[in-house]
Design a protein that fits this description.
By secondary structure, the protein is an alpha+beta fold. It has helices at about 5, 10-30, 50-100, 325-330, 385-405; strands at about 105-110, 120-130, 135-145, 150, 155-165, 175-180, 195, 215-220, 230-240, 245-255, 260-270, 275-280, 285-295, 300-310, 315-320, 335-345, 355, 360-365. A hairpin with a 5-residue loop joins strand 13 (about 285-295) and strand 14 (about 300-310).
Length: about 400
């Protein structure tokens, strides 16, 4: 796009070498007689006038030949430039067409690997750092937390371990750990800090005693943060062989849900696509974002479905669409399974930026079996996509026209 704007003034740029070449040729043609040999060196059998005429004629011929060669080189350079632009325009058109075959709300889940299993713990492995930020050599700090976004009565498990370069657990002592409110900038905290008991004794969320992994479980609704709508930071000060270390975890907590699930999913094959309708009672109107995952009958992750629309208060259905062409192209084994649905009310220009609904963990709905021919083969179409495809196609056509024009002789 934007090639037409770039082309303005390009003919003048292209002609400038020709002007220089013409001026150079004329200068050479005028100056050539001055460079002729002295009369005394010319054989007496050839008249002076003839010699001057021959010199002028040969100079003009050389200049014309030089002009033609330079013009040909300039034209070839322009053609190569436009060939490069044509290749870029064709690549941009092909990439956009390929990436928009399906609508934004119905995508292959392979294109979003971070969204495949949203409820798995978040594991991290990094250098063990002292409170001054310097790393301890030969030692790694391994941490995990169950989730970042926490709603209502949900709990979060945190773990901390120190290992050597061979992943062997090393002795660790937790000096101090606490959970505290992390208020928005220029805002004072309203909740007291909560001491936390990270342990390796098989209690308070620790899975296995004596394995070198220290753990704790936090439930904001029962541990002093029941009315907090905001961010909580868990800080851990630890000691390894006399050296101090530090790490922290952040979560965003929503005490009250803006909407409640009403149970049950309605499926419908409509216009060549399979739609999932999730029922909810909406207490707070606004823009809701709902995300679900679809696996095939063999448990292979297949599609990522999204709802993102303004919703009024009252009984509502959130529609998660599985686009027909995505099914035709992917050919999943039926029946399909909708699982791991999460949702939130978007709060624009606010902190936190979302108010969470309870997550639906695991299988939510299993579909009927449908023949592949039931689904549409058509690419997704929208005003925006058609507009961009039109602009990218014009860029290709314009570049191709210039290549063809410059491919002909002068």
């Amino acid at each position: 796009m934007g090639v037409m704007r770039q082309q303005r003034g390009r003919s003048v740029w292209w002609l400038s070498p020709l002007v220089i070449v013409v001026a150079w040729a004329l200068w050479q043609g005028i100056d050539e007689p001055r460079a002729a040999a002295p009369l005394a060196s010319v054989p007496p059998s050839r008249p002076v006038a003839g010699r001057a005429a021959d010199a002028t004629s040969s100079g003009a011929a050389a200049s014309a030949a030089s002009f033609t060669a330079s013009a040909r080189q300039a034209r070839q350079a322009q053609r190569e430039l436009w060939q490069q632009r044509l290749a870029r325009a064709q690549a941009a058109l092909a990439a956009y067409r390929e990436s928009t075959r399906y609508p934004y709300e119905s995508q292959p889940i392979a294109a979003h690997p971070d969204q495949v299993y949203p409820n798995r713990p978040i594991d991290e492995d990094h250098a063990l750092r002292r409170p001054d930020g310097k790393a301890t050599e030969g030692v790694r700090l391994r941490t995990s937390q169950e989730r970042v976004f926490v709603q209502g009565s949900e709990t979060v498990r945190f773990t901390v371990a120190v290992v050597d370069e061979n992943a062997k657990p090393l002795p660790l002592r937790i000096v101090r750990a606490s959970a505290r409110e992390l208020p928005a900038p220029q805002t004072a905290a309203t909740h007291a800090d909560l001491p936390l008991d990270f342990n390796d004794e098989g209690r308070l969320g620790d899975a296995t005693a004596g394995d070198g992994v220290f753990s704790v479980q936090l439930q904001p609704s029962t541990q002093g943060f029941a009315d907090l709508f905001g961010q909580i930071r868990v800080e851990v000060f630890l000691e390894f062989r006399g050296q101090q270390g530090y790490t922290y975890f952040d979560i965003l907590y929503t005490p009250e849900s803006p909407a409640d699930w009403q149970g049950g999913v309605r499926e419908a094959l409509e216009d060549g696509s399979l739609n999932f309708y999730l029922k909810a009672k909406v207490r707070e109107a606004g823009r809701y974002v709902v995300t679900g995952r679809v696996d095939d009958a063999d448990g292979k992750p297949f599609a990522l479905l999204t709802f993102n629309e303004e919703v009024a208060a009252g009984a509502q259905e959130f529609r998660l669409p599985l686009y027909g062409k995505l099914v035709r192209d992917g050919q999943p084994t039926f029946p399909l399974r909708l699982r791991d649905v999460d949702a939130f009310l978007l709060r624009q220009d606010a902190f936190p930026d979302r108010s969470l609904m309870p997550r639906l963990v695991g299988p939510v709905h299993t579909t009927r079996s449908y023949p592949l021919a039931s689904f549409s083969q058509a690419d997704w179409s929208s005003e925006e996509r058609d507009r961009y495809l039109g602009e990218l196609t014009r860029d290709v056509d314009q570049a191709k026209t210039r290549v063809d024009e410059l491919g002909h002789g002068p």
